[in-house]
Every structure is written in structure tokens, then in C-alpha cells.
Amino acid sequence: MKIIFFLIKTIFVPLIDAIDKFGDLFNLKFYSQNKRISNVLDGYKTHTTEDLAIFVVYQKNHIPFYIKNVLQVLDSLKVNVLVTVNQEIGSEQISWLRNETSKVIVRKNFGRDFAAYKDAINIANLSEYQKLIILNDSVVYFSKNLKDVFETMLSKDKDIVCLTENYEKAWHVQSYFYSLSKKIFDSNQFKEFWKNYKPFNSRPHSVFNGEIAFSQKVLSKYSSNRYVYYSVSRLASLASIENQNNNLFIKKYFDLVPINQLQDNIDSIFLNHEEDKEKEKMIRAKVLEESFSSLEKLNPSHYFAFLAPYLTNTCILKKDLVFRGTYSIIKTKNALKLLGLEDSDIEEVINEMILKGSIKNLSLLNKLKAMVGLI
Q: What is the pLDDT of residues 159-176, one digit of tens each?
């Protein structure tokens, strides 16, 4: 089985990806921003500010609560918002967005989020600003202490602030939610990267030539002055404190993470040492340490999806947790309830995840593509 998977990753993935990218070369939208953009509309909510947010949205005939949450917080912080949307969102929603933002870019859905970032950066007059937030709606932004997260993103003493970073393949800032200082977006490296970025529809291209390349070529120079809101070190420290103060935390911990190799032993460990409180405390700490060691090597936006919000009293999480098979619908719903979120918000998110489905419901070809990261 390992040999088959290795062959799929080394032969099937590059071949299919190359075929898809070759097809993009015959599409005029690949070469021309004007072909990708249908309209650029001025919004009616403009602040006199040094802060700009570029918000990439992909929705169909609906603006969910979590997009409204973001726009409400950004307005309260007097941040100008340039939102890019796909045509399918509908004219009524575009009109609503104009009332809530400073500019709306209506795009054809081409090139994934990184192409949308490229187009928005080209249109925005970045010279007017000192801080740039870049985010998209591949995550759900619950209102719980959301303002605190954005205030941190606007911190003037950090060159990079991001929600999560990833060490898979190579160190990189996960590009769905982060902010940059003027020092970075006014640099030649930043401008050259976006000028030269090729807007393929390929997911691997967006990850390797977009997210990872941007971090390695542009952000790495400034990485010593960064803050990661959901950093592994911060979460480990918060979890350790919680574990010391709460005897039941370790059991709750396994309701919040997708790893359960140690779960079968938890009850027996505590049962065997319920009279030995010091021994029990040491075992809890060891279980937590071993589990964190396993999880920190994986994608934090998925494997700390619920633990990070629990420990920081916030909640921002990826929408593809069920689709990618990291969590079940039941575990997701239970974790969201454990976080104390609004029932109506939980139901809307759960319904969206159900409609999106999961990898195992795809056709065999698409299932293989999803398993190896092509979709």
C-alpha cells in the first residue's frame, strides 16, 4: 500500500497537475487581470486610516454570519476593506458589500485565492497604508473575542502577525489570515513576487509557488519579528497551565483534538492512580507532552482547530475540517458546543460542512486527487 501511495504521489500527482496547468495556458484569464476582473466598484464605507484589509470571499447568493462578523469588527477598528468576490455571489450581495466596504472587486473564479490576492494588491493603493491584513473566507470567524484577534493583527511593533504557521515541507505563514507591516509590502521582494506570480488554477501551485514561496522569498527576511496567535509554543504553554489547574482537562483535551491513540489508556491510567495525586499529575503532563509532540508536526490549522480556540478563548477555524477527514460531523458539533458558541452559528457551520461533503463521497479519481492535495 505504501508503494502504491508513493507511486501516486511521485507520478500521478505531477502528471495530473501538469495537465491541468497546461490547460490554463489556453485561457486568456491566465494572462490578463482585465479578463479575470468583471468590475471594480467603490464602496460607501471609507475610513481615514493607515490600515487596509484585503478580504477574498467566495460565496454563492449568500453572505454568511462569519463574513459579517469580520466586516463589523474591521469597521469598529476603522480599517478600510477591499473585498474581492466571485460573480456567483449575486448583485444583491454585491450591493450589500459596497455599503460595508471601501471597494469591491468582482472577479471570475480563476487562479484560487492567490490570484485574487494578486489582483487586489495590484488595484489597492498600498502606499497610503502602514498595515495590511490579508484574509479569506476559507475559515469561519466566530464573534467570540474576534476583535482581540484583529487588534493583535494590527499591532504596529510586529512585521508579521499570523493566525497559524506551518512547518510541513518548509516553514510558511498560512495565508488565510495574516498581516504585514509597510516595511514588507513596500519592499522590492514583495512587489517582485506578486508581479511574477503565475495565477494557475492548480492547488499544489497555490501552495508551493504561492504560500510557501511567498514565505520563503519574502517573509523569511522578517520572520524574527513575527507573532503567531495560535502558535504551538503558546498553545503548549496554555495547555500546561490548564492541565495543572484542572484535573479533568486531559479528558476534555481529547474531545478537542483528532488524535486518540492514547484515549483508550486514559481512563485506566486515572483509575489506577486515583489515590496517587502526584503520580496522576505527572501522567497527565506526560500524556499532554507526547500528544503535543505528535500534533505539532502536522497542519496546525486542522489538528489544533478546536484546541487553539479553547485555550485562547476565541474561535477561528477552517471550513474543510470534515471534508479532509480530520474530524467527523459529530465531533465537530460537540467541540463547537464545548467552546460555548451560539447555537444558530453552530448549526449554520455544520450545515455548510454537511453540504460540502467529505473526500470519501467523491468519485474515485477525485478521491485520489483530494488524498494527495490536488483538490
A: 999 999 999 889 999 999
Task: Count CB-CB contacts under 10 A for residue 137.
Answer: 21
The answer to whether the beta carbons of residues 261 and 240 sit under 8 Å apart is no
Q: Rounded distance, CA 281 to CA 263, Å?
A: 17
Helices (H) and strands (E) in the chain, counts: 21, 12
Label the pairing between strands 80-86 and 51-57: parallel
**pTM of the predicted protein model:** 0.91
Residues of the chain under the 70 pLDDT cut: 1-9, 259-281, 283, 294-295, 368, 371-372, 374
Give the DSSP letter of residue 238.
Answer: H
Domain ranges of the chain: 28-228, 232-364
What is the bridge-based pairing of β-strands 139-141 and 80-86?
A: unpaired
Whether domain 28-228 has CATH 3.30.9: no
Residues forming beta bridges with residue 316, ordered by sequence position:
141
Distance (Å, whole) CA 162 – CA 182: 15
Instruction: Look over the chain and give the mean of its residue pLDDT values, rounded to a whole number.
Output: 89
In the chain, what's the furthest Cα-to-Cα distance?
A: 72
Summarised one tens digit per residue, pLDDT across range 221-245 is 999 999 999 999 899 899 988 888 8
